[in-house]
Amino acid sequence: MTTLSAAAPAQPAASESILSPRYLAVTIGFVASILLTAFEAMAVGAAMPVAVAKLHGLPYYSLAFSAYLTTSLLGMVLSGQRSDRSGPRLPCLGGIALFGVGLLTAGTATTMAQFVLGRAIQGLGGGLVIVALYVLVGRAYPEHLRGKAFSAMATCWVLPGAVGPVIAGVLTEDLSWRWIFLGTAVLIVIPLVLLAGPLRDLPRVEAAERDEAENARLRRIRVAAGVTALGAGLLELGSQEINLVGLILAPIAIALLVPSVPRLLPAGTLRARRGLPTVILMRGLMAGSYFGIEAFLPLMLEQHRGMSVTFAGLSLVTATVGWAISSWAINQPAVATRLSKPARVRTGIAVCGLSLIGDIVAVSTATPLWTVALAMGFASLGAGMAFPTVSLLTLELSEPEEQGTNSASLQVADGITSTLAIALGGSIYHAMSTDGSSGGVYVLLYALYIGIAAVAWMLAPRVRRA
Question: Beta-carbon neighbour count of residue 208 at 10 Å?
């Protein structure tokens, strides 16, 4: 049971948009936050090998990524609980500030241990922010404008995706890798200032008083989040190579994840119960499929087809552009009125999966390399249709006081399934290939990820409640 201390946003006129005066401040604020996050992700990914080498930490390279992942999962759960209880203001602004502290810690690192600590702080802040932004969209915009807000989020990745790696390369080669982290940290103040006002002015949703049983349940969820984060980190570490360490870490990670992950998801998620549980499960499967392909595509282009690092990276630019175009298109009346949300999800998954077959063709034949970028572009068109629609369904099927928890479940499913899919792919890669030059391993990997997409496609009709 909830009470509203202020009226929810009234239904605006048909001519209003997320850039209308009523919503302009919150739109500018979250767009600035996503732009900064996107640039950091693209630039840091390009500069990471140099940074780790300079710190003499190449044997611990994967820790720079797993540290971010593990703490972000914890941040997502904490943000969801706090947002449901008292609104997204504290987790959003606090998360942005923590993200900045992490950037400063990593950018000033003199040892690999300090660098990994910085990445862990970044991950905690990033996890807090992403869930809080989902709640912000749910509470700041009426239902028919939320799709356009998610479309704006997708568009924010286009420019950073195109110029982020280039800027990172110039700064790394001409100045220092540290400027990637320190320069981004300086810019943190922009989203902090821009979001402070809109977050303060959000309609408040007050949850009923919690009894001791509810407090105990929330504590168990927080513990499960910590165990899940640890398990995910161990799994990522164990999948780096097929050796004794990996063989020890992998079963420990699975033993941690099996009992903890279900506690972070809506009841019935793993059984694909109709409604929200299927929405969450389907999002995880979609993420595992799409980001699994995306993780191994540059490796295939470089090691199997002999492309340079620059051209391999540019092949992913088509993905950001395709995603943005598609997420914009599904909010146009010609599409929105003809395709229901479940139909949009199923169509998007089908387009994505069928397009990825093009990558299998590129691996097994002498197909021109531009067809790989074309196939990835079409796959991202499908992903850009499916992913934002699943986000909309999550908010639509959630009570206002549950938007934080359910948005956290969505992000946890996304992160955990991506980790599992990429870890499985990494194990297959190391087991079958020594140098990545054989095309057979990539055919198997892509077939695996397309199969995961097929399972998500079959679940799409179950996103509506019975």
Answer: 10
